Amino acid sequence: MKKKWLAGWHAGRYTRWLAGLLGLGLLLFLTDLLFPFRVAPRYSTLVEAADGSVLHAFLNADDKWRLYTELDEINPTLRKTLIFKEDKWFYYHPGVNPAAVIRALFNNTASGRRTSGASTITMQVVRLLEPRPRTYASKFIELFRAFQLEAHYSKDEILQLYVNLVPYGSNIEGIKSASLLYLGKPPELLSLAEVTALTIIPNRPTSLRPDGVNKRLIAERNRWLRRFDGLFDRQTIDDALNEPLTARRREAPKAAPHLAIRLRGEHPGVPILKTTLQRSRQTAIEQLTRNYSGRLRFQNIRNAAVFVLNNQTMTVEAYVGSADFSDSTDGGQVDGIRAIRSPGSTLKPLLFATAFEKGMLTPKSVLYDVPTNFSGFEPENFDKLFHGKVTVEFALANSLNVPAVQVLSKMGTNALVEKLKKAEFQTVKKQSGRLGLSLILGGCGVTLEELTTLFAAFGNEGRFEKPQFLRDKRSNAVAELVSPEATYLITQILTQVTRPDLPNNYAYTYHLPRIAWKTGTSYGKKDAWSIGYNGRYTVGVWVGNFSGEGVPELNGANIATPLLFDVFNTIDYNAPANWYQQPDGLSKRLVCAESGQVPSEFCTHRIEDYQLTGISSTLPCQHRKRVWLDLKKRFTYCTYCMPADGSVREEWAPNDPPELISWFENRHISYEKIPPHNPACTRVFGNTRSLLISYPVDGSTYRLNRREQNRLSLSCQAGNDVAKVYWYLNDKLLQAAAPGEPVFCLPPAGKVKISCADDKGRHTDSYVTVIYE
């Protein structure tokens, strides 16, 4: 009976113990749910270069240097030293060391004061995360929080938290902060002597703070090193005892400030931003840009920005947002790589590449660089000169404006805008509904980053990919922006060295690696651009003033290109001579030298040109035409008035457009003229293509001063065969004149119809509004 009772009693005791444990566990679980321990320390932002070295560091939101230490940065020496010094049983207890608690409680009770603590590393982490008054109540809360921390985090994660939060006095917290700011190196490179010094500073952060002399710190360090006997071998300890200590407070790293600020804003809360910047390259180009900008200051040009892309990986290797971040005279803190500026002529390669792949043009196609009015828009070249007939490759290599506007007018602005949208030009996307022909001459907003990325697409045979700033963020899609064939033609043109946008001191670039490049200068000479690329790199350079002040000497060729060449000589000196190979979709053909079109029977001068097989236009050349003349070659006949005999066929006559003939006439340049048409012919031609009213512009409004008797100027562009034109004002004859002769009129107020007819019966109209003031 007694044995049964005892057995029942024991069974009941075990059941009560089990129930108690389950109840305690349930209580702890519910308490953990009700009072969760939120571990969310606010770290400083650290920006690293591609090799892992620190480029830039920021204070955290509490104005503290709390740099995040990764697990792999806690080397074995640091781990062993910390655990030996702070908590030898760290890997064995559940967050609280019972033996240490009992010992501390006994000692403190016996002495009547606090003589020793029982804090484990886990409990120290709790105290650092949730500071409380040093009371017994606070200690019990710390014990509970320590159990919570151990339940949710691994030992290595808890040690990592301790390493990140341990205070070093002033506003420095964490081993990594102390290592960089006191020793100038990351924690994984610390020696035993340096590790020991850093682990003891938190015990007496005021008296042991590094000051350059460090006598007290060295003495305390050596005292602890001698206690490590058995933890490390004797020789290692002896070497550490003899190692000097050059610890002192250093400035936080501040390289690549513009990119660092940008990335911190784009990735809030990320403690370490691992960039693709090449540290040595970034440092060299920062210095290069600062020195070059300094040499331009006497010309009142105060700033520059440089953006370097690796074409093979599309990673950003250098990012210099201004000549000097600390310079307040011209907004040194402005990020010139993201600043919206006018692109000048830098979009012309994309325009002509688009025209190539649409089959509109080939490199030898002829355009007309003459004064032309595009519905009120009259572009001029940079040098105020015109060149008459030019090829596409000449127009692009010389950055001529009128041919570019001529091509955009025929192609349509929307075609170029869509390309720019595809290339992620953000401001163009916003402005797309308002952009006109001035777009190709800089009438839009772009950034240096956008332009450089666009030219990187040329460097990658037409494939567009957004730049990569962070090492672990490569997820960009690749899209074909321009066909490889059109890209190859553009690259060949932009590689020419017989061009006007070479800097004046080009001779010093003898060893420059082979590159293709394009310059640009914005209206008002506020922005100078030079963008270059080869198979390895694309470099974008902007030079100017962030204030927007224009400078007469500012231009892409002589101001921006020298810096571009300097950068290429720095990053790609003695580069391999490999160049782009001609794509299979390109072939060569003979074209007429006069027009760049497929030769007709009368084209005697033929030259070789590229063509996009199956795409380039195959229309035959029409630069000359057959005409019938009288025997004395005084006038021409049409089929309507040609006599049965007494006429002769002239093999060919020029078929030039009116704008070119008008330029010939105004410049007194001799050209082959077609004799006037038979005056006895009454035939009326309905063709209006060879007669254009260049001024006044159709649809425009003109303000005239009645007191000063301002008159409205009339001018037209007529065909080669026109001898006289007739001007009409509201359908009333005003005056007969030669095609190039200036005519003036005093129109009535309101809407006015102005008409022009030539001696062939062709006519055209222009409607304008006149307001008198």
TrEMBL record:
<dbReference type="InterPro" id="IPR001264">
    <property type="entry name" value="Glyco_trans_51"/>
</dbReference>
<keyword id="KW-0808">Transferase</keyword>
<keyword id="KW-0645">Protease</keyword>
<keyword id="KW-0328">Glycosyltransferase</keyword>
<dbReference type="InterPro" id="IPR009647">
    <property type="entry name" value="PBP_C"/>
</dbReference>
<dbReference type="InterPro" id="IPR012338">
    <property type="entry name" value="Beta-lactam/transpept-like"/>
</dbReference>
<dbReference type="GO" id="GO:0008658">
    <property type="term" value="F:penicillin binding"/>
</dbReference>
<dbReference type="InterPro" id="IPR023346">
    <property type="entry name" value="Lysozyme-like_dom_sf"/>
</dbReference>
<dbReference type="GO" id="GO:0030288">
    <property type="term" value="C:outer membrane-bounded periplasmic space"/>
</dbReference>
<dbReference type="GO" id="GO:0004180">
    <property type="term" value="F:carboxypeptidase activity"/>
</dbReference>
<dbReference type="Pfam" id="PF00912">
    <property type="entry name" value="Transgly"/>
</dbReference>
<dbReference type="GO" id="GO:0006508">
    <property type="term" value="P:proteolysis"/>
</dbReference>
<feature type="domain" description="Glycosyl transferase family 51">
    <location>
        <begin position="53"/>
        <end position="227"/>
    </location>
</feature>
<dbReference type="InterPro" id="IPR036950">
    <property type="entry name" value="PBP_transglycosylase"/>
</dbReference>
<keyword id="KW-0121">Carboxypeptidase</keyword>
<comment type="similarity">
    <text>In the C-terminal section; belongs to the transpeptidase family.</text>
</comment>
<keyword id="KW-0511">Multifunctional enzyme</keyword>
<comment type="similarity">
    <text>In the N-terminal section; belongs to the glycosyltransferase 51 family.</text>
</comment>
<dbReference type="GO" id="GO:0008955">
    <property type="term" value="F:peptidoglycan glycosyltransferase activity"/>
</dbReference>
<dbReference type="InterPro" id="IPR011815">
    <property type="entry name" value="PBP_1c"/>
</dbReference>
<protein>
    <recommendedName>
        <fullName>peptidoglycan glycosyltransferase</fullName>
        <ecNumber>2.4.99.28</ecNumber>
    </recommendedName>
</protein>
<feature type="domain" description="Penicillin-binding protein transpeptidase">
    <location>
        <begin position="305"/>
        <end position="544"/>
    </location>
</feature>
<feature type="domain" description="Penicillin-binding C-terminal">
    <location>
        <begin position="688"/>
        <end position="765"/>
    </location>
</feature>
<dbReference type="InterPro" id="IPR050396">
    <property type="entry name" value="Glycosyltr_51/Transpeptidase"/>
</dbReference>
<keyword id="KW-0378">Hydrolase</keyword>
<dbReference type="Pfam" id="PF06832">
    <property type="entry name" value="BiPBP_C"/>
</dbReference>
<dbReference type="Pfam" id="PF00905">
    <property type="entry name" value="Transpeptidase"/>
</dbReference>
<dbReference type="InterPro" id="IPR001460">
    <property type="entry name" value="PCN-bd_Tpept"/>
</dbReference>
<dbReference type="GO" id="GO:0009252">
    <property type="term" value="P:peptidoglycan biosynthetic process"/>
</dbReference>
<comment type="pathway">
    <text>Cell wall biogenesis; peptidoglycan biosynthesis.</text>
</comment>
